[in-house]
Design brief:
3 domains, alpha+beta, Rhopdopsin 7-helix transmembrane proteins, Heat Shock Protein 90, Helix Hairpins, single chain
Length: 536
């Protein structure tokens, strides 16, 4: 079998397989158009192969008309493809008629008049020579060139107007790949036959592989420069071609059967391999799309969170002034600055004072959270005695604890240095919060604050006999707006922000806070630890 015919058969097989693969992986209008486009190229290659093999000149004329019809469909489908890619918008019925009409008319003409394009076929030394009807062939060539130019006009227009970077890359890949194929193909299959040289007509289908592959990658949105994907597919196709050539050039029937059987097996497993690659590409694209969607959602959430933080900050600042006024005037009323109050009035004003005091603390927590999240939390570091600060806070909180019937104690190891470098106001806020929480969540019993030092670490442990902490609550105890499930039964005024603020303050001091508890109803212990450069 001549090498030209082998190449044409190989081109037919490759194009047919590509058409099937693309159709299976891209079942939309673009994928369908591309699959039919590749099938026309395959039929063109097959018609040329049979034309070269056929010894009967009448049958050879039939095959010649067949491959000219198939070749006429190539610019027609390429033009249609240029209209729907990448926007995927099908043209109207008038445009469809102008595109498909000439090929249908040419097909009908050849069915009626077999010698419309080819006047005579003769056998020569190098194969078959074809005498064309020059006038009709000029019409055919003008149609071919016109449709190709219109297709490039559409693709170029899409490339210039498309803003999407990926679409521009795909269009560029299509334009370059097809331009190479059309230029070489038209030289050997359109212009050479017109000047009477039919010897190299078999080269055209070989050059179309560049066009088929370039459009195929663009249509399926493969990662064009993914070495793994390209190497897998090219290796598989190369193996098929190698075995096919061995089968066609085998000299004995036994070798043809063996090579043919091997080809069937390799094709089967090769299809499975390529399908696996296609699935991998699809999965990767889905993951990339999901990642992009997730990134967009995260950006939106961050923006919303920032807006929430700014709103909380503004609202808290606006609440601070009237609350301070309410607290100040109610305090003056209680002290008798505006005259002596009756017992009932005194009780009512005292409730106003206590409520405004709680609101002030809640607003302060919200302000601290907004400052922390916006990075505006300011610290005034100085060296001071942590033992003295903790002891003072315990003394301040003792009346509140005793009023509730709780025993509050403080102890520290003697002859130890408890000097630290920190912000006294912020550290006081943390210690006060922990002791205040212990008082709030301890219905009966006692609270003990114990201070100790071990080398370069200073630890304050605040233990209570209160409601305890469950295993489910412990991991999220120091998160924003987090409270124990039944904490509201003991304290209805908590916001779930105090522990979060304390954690962030200690983090800024290179220290840490944590809690331990044997379980629900068994009390708990909260720890404040300073270490490293903070300890003096």
């Amino acid at each position: 079998m001549p090498i030209e015919v082998i190449i044409l058969f190989i081109s037919t097989v490759i194009n047919t397989l590509l058409s099937i693969f693309i159709f299976r992986s891209q079942r939309d209008q673009v994928g369908l158009t591309y699959s039919i486009f590749v099938l026309f190229i395959a039929f063109w290659s097959l018609g040329l192969a049979f034309f070269l093999l056929e010894t009967d000149l009448n049958k050879a004329l039939l095959f010649a008309n067949g491959y000219y019809i198939a070749a006429a469909g190539i610019p027609m489908l390429f033009l249609y493809f240029s209209l729907i890619f990448p926007e995927k918008r099908p043209p109207n019925s008038v445009v469809k008629t102008l595109i498909f009409g000439p090929v249908l008319l040419f097909f009908a003409t050849l069915l009626i008049k077999k010698h419309f394009l080819i006047e005579e076929i003769s056998v020569v030394a190098w194969g078959k020579d074809v005498i064309l009807n020059q006038l009709h062939y000029i019409y055919y060539g003008c149609y071919f060139i016109l449709f190709v130019l219109l297709a490039y006009y559409n693709l170029g227009k899409s490339y210039l107007t498309t803003q999407d970077r990926e679409s521009r890359i795909r269009l560029k890949f299509i334009i370059i790949g097809t331009l190479i194929s059309y230029t070489l193909g038209m030289v050997f299959n359109l212009f050479f036959p017109w000047i009477g040289n039919y010897q190299y007509i078999w080269l055209g289908p070989l050059f179309t592989l560049i066009m088929v592959v370039s459009i195929g990658y663009a249509v399926t949105k493969h990662h064009l420069f993914n070495i793994k994907v390209i190497a897998t597919e090219l290796t598989t196709f190369g193996l098929w071609i190698f075995i096919l050539i061995r089968t066609l050039i085998s000299e004995t029937l036994q070798d043809q059967i063996i090579n043919g059987g091997l080809l069937v097996i390799v094709v089967f497993f090769g299809i499975l391999l390529i399908r696996g690659v296609i699935k991998e590409v699809r999965l990767r694209e889905r993951m990339e799309n999901l990642a992009e969607e997730l990134a967009t959602a995260n950006a939106r959430l961050r923006a919303l969170d920032q807006q929430k933080t700014e709103f909380v900050s503004i609202a808290s600042h606006q609440l601070r002034s009237p609350l301070t006024a309410i607290k100040g005037y109610s305090s003056m009323l209680l002290e008798g600055s505006f005259g002596k109050l009756s017992e009932k009035t005194h009780e009512a004003v005292d409730r106003i004072f206590q409520s405004s005091q709680r609101l002030v603390l809640i607003v302060e927590d919200f302000l601290n959270v907004s400052r922390i999240e916006q990075g505006r939390m300011k610290y005034d570091f100085s060296t001071f005695d942590f033992k003295e600060l903790a002891s003072r806070i315990v003394e301040e909180q003792r009346p509140v604890a005793e009023k509730k019937g709780l025993k509050l104690t403080f102890s520290a190891e003697k002859l130890k240095n408890y000097m630290i470098m920190a912000d006294p106001g912020k550290v006081s806020q943390v210690v006060t919060n922990f002791i205040d929480n212990a008082v709030k969540y301890t219905p009966t019993g006692s609270i003990a604050a114990k201070l100790s030092r071990d080398n370069e670490k200073i630890l304050l442990a605040i233990s209570d006999t209160g409601i305890g902490i469950t295993e489910e609550t412990m991991p999220k105890l120091f998160d924003k707006f987090s409270r124990a499930l039944d904490a509201s039964k003991t304290n209805t005024g908590g916001t779930g922000l105090g522990l979060y603020v304390a954690k962030e303050i200690m983090k800024a001091h290179k220290g840490r806070v944590w809690a331990e508890s044997p379980g629900e109803g068994k009390g708990s212990t909260f720890f404040i630890e300073f270490s490293g450069d903070s300890v003096k």
